[in-house]
Write a structure and sequence with these properties.
Length: about 325
Amino acid sequence: MITVTLNEVFLIMVSLLVFPGLLFIVSLAFFTEWFIRKFSARIQNRMGPTYVGPFGILQPFMDFIKLASVKEEIKQKYSIDWLAKVFGYMGLSAAITALTLFPISPIRFTSDYDFLVYVYLCCVWVPVAMMVMGLSTPNPFATIGVSRILSIVTVCEPAYFVAILTPILLVTKIYSPDNVYSIYWTSVYSYRLWLNPYTLVPIVLSFIAVMVSLQAKSMLQPFNIPEAEQEIIAGFATEFNSQLLALANLLHDIDTVITIISIVYLFLGGPYPFPHLSIEGVLILVFKYLLVLTIMTIVKGVFGRFKIEQAISVIAKYSLLPALLALVLALIMPI
């Protein structure tokens, strides 16, 4: 029989609602959106967010407030807005719950094969939520956008899965054989993979693969195909407005944040080799997050949009193929 103390219940609620849950992850999502908009604008010799807050840093927050509480909600006759909102909230809940598998959470759920829970929450529920939201508002452009999401997800999510499986497998084989395929223990030992000459090649290949899949999962250039304004207006989000648009944007941003956090922990070791709660560890963690965010923003700023067939080919060639090669190397590598 499993018993849970009041202190554990309190920690679970704090983890889900405050840190690293809803409050923290929403704030980080707003910051991430601001950073991408501001930095990519500078790359393209534009201003980016400027007026709301210092350097325009509060612009994403004010955009969300405006959509959620000021803009009038316009409903189509045949739209199912309640279904879109339900799946949007389910996607948010799944993404926030996944954070409890990482060391960043005050209370962590760890077990063998817990990475499958993470994959189920973030690689299945989040894209499914986005697609159902798009299909809940009938429009030819929304349908095309959803079909494009499905086309990208069919390739980039398996590539992401195989890419994160490589460090998880290597850590299980070499450093933590008693904790099989665990997100937490991979986070603890993954930085050592870069220092081991036998694991350097597979971890580099899988890191390249996961960065390409991150770009595709985030629907940023050159993979912003499901919401290509010049071709299909706004794609799956064409009919979104007011609260529904705010919810869709927030889900998209949080999905990007969770993916970056997974890369920081599973590939770069999070705060390690420093302790997690130390000042040095926090600074290293922030630096690694900004490093990954900067790389993806630079790619967004310098690339144009691919066609759908080009995007699938690029993901398969530069994400799925390197990830599979890295996994094979990890499987045949002697302990």
